[in-house]
Amino acid sequence: MIREMTRLDFESFWPCFKSVIQAQETYAFEPNMVLEEAYRLWCELPLKTFVFVEGEQILGSYYIKPNGMGPSDHICNCGYMVDSKARGKGIARQLCEHSQRIAMELGFEAMQFNSVVSTNDVAVALWKKLGFNIIGTIPLAYRHGKLGYVDCYIMHKSLNVTIGE
């Protein structure tokens, strides 16, 4: 089940969030961020934040927000996290498909990911399967925790097509 995230949900999700940012493999977030900063970034600044819940466990989350302001506010941006224990179960796909439906309901015409770490092969492949295209490469844009400097991709999808194509 995917539903809007509450403060208590985020507190339950915090160990996953902290683990992801401390690994420094996928997110350009301060690795020593504390819970309050993370909550503000993930839940208060975006338009909406959702969780993927199975039973009592929160296995993933995403946020949605405009990618730009004014004349660029028709394109949205999302961020996704899935608990390491739940990866490979299709949760990221479900979250991305859900986010596209929500984006269209909110009136967005396209979705753009501004900084997909190029070595995150699973995410890059999934986003491509879901119709996103790499529209740019930012050379050496990310200091990977294990690999050093790696490229990042800008990925984009128009939302006037059927989700999942």
Summarize the structure.
This protein has one domain (about 1-160): 3-Layer(aba) Sandwich (Aminopeptidase), CATH 3.40.630.30. It has a 7-stranded mixed beta sheet with strand order 1-2-3-4-5-7-6, with helices on both faces.
What are the salient characteristics of this protein?
single chain, 165 residues, alpha+beta, Aminopeptidase, seven-stranded mixed sheet, 7 strands, GNAT_dom
**How many helices in DSSP terms?**
4
Mean pLDDT: 95
Name the structural class: alpha+beta
- The 3D shape can be described as globular
Rounded Rg: 15 Å
Taking pLDDT < 50 over at least 5 consecutive residues as the criterion, the unreliable ranges are none
H/E order of the elements? EHHEEEHEHEE
The number of distinct β-strands equals: 7
Q: Give the % helix.
A: 25-40%
Strand order of the largest sheet: 1-2-3-4-5-7-6
- CATH T-level fold name: Aminopeptidase
Strand content bin = 35-45%
Report the CATH superfamily. Answer: Gcn5-related N-acetyltransferase (GNAT)
